Amino acid sequence: xxxxxxxxxxxxxxxxxxxxxxxxxxxxxxxxxxxxxxxxxxxxxxxxxxxxxxxxxxxxxxxxxxxxxxxxxx
Length: 74
Hints:
The chain is α+β, with helices and mostly antiparallel strands. The chain is 38% helix and 16% strand. The protein has helices spanning 25-32, 37-40, 46-54, 58-64, and strands at 6-11, 18-23. The longest helix has 9 residues, at 46-54.
């Protein structure tokens, strides 16, 4: 794994969640130059990547977009 030498301070726009996310600076630059975030940061969780993209933490994301139950609708 590459060195995680770049710290991002991210905060959720909807609650008081703040998180420091450590990434590789070259990966961060690649993302800003058009690389897909999941390809640039495969070592981060989906929640961390979403926080970077939309400033929405995983808990708020789950509240806004709960899982859909496809099989039991009446």
